[in-house]
Amino acid sequence: MGKMTFIVDFPDGQEPAVGAGTDILGGQFISVYFGDMREQSAWRPADQVPPYNELLMVQHADGSRDVDICSEYSGWYGEDDETTVKYWMPLPDAMEADDE
Predict the structure, then answer these.
(1) CB 3.0-4.6 Å disulfide test: which of 15, 17, 22, 45 passes with 29?
(2) What's the CA gap between 83 and 61, in Å, rounded?
(3) pLDDT score for 28
């Protein structure tokens, strides 16, 4: 079965009601996210406060990328003058184990 993702922009307050019985162009409705999913995977500048004590993807000043944690008290783990974090983004949710 093929799946498609649509991002539809509605004026505030004019979002349609959706539910398990909603017909979507002849397909079965699976899930809905009320927001812009693209924002979840967007790079944020390091001066935008990240969620503390969570694994995050980071990009350093030299262009290298890594997974790191930021602490409210000590900043980015392992950061020094040569590995300055310039951007960060949340990691995607972990994959669920396939029972097969």
Answers:
(1) 22
(2) 7
(3) 74
Instruction: Pick the closest to residue 45 from 79, 92, 91, 88 (CA basis).
Output: 88
What mean pLDDT comes out for the span 55-68?
89
Among 57, 31, 35, 55, residue whose Cα is nearest residue 44: 57
Q: Which amino acid is at 64?
A: S
Q: CA-based Rg of the chain, rounded to a whole angstrom?
A: 19
Q: How far is CA 33 from CA 15, 16, 29, 30, 74, in A?
A: 12, 13, 12, 11, 34
Tell me what the mean pLDDT of segment 30-41 comes to.
67
pLDDT at position 99 is 66
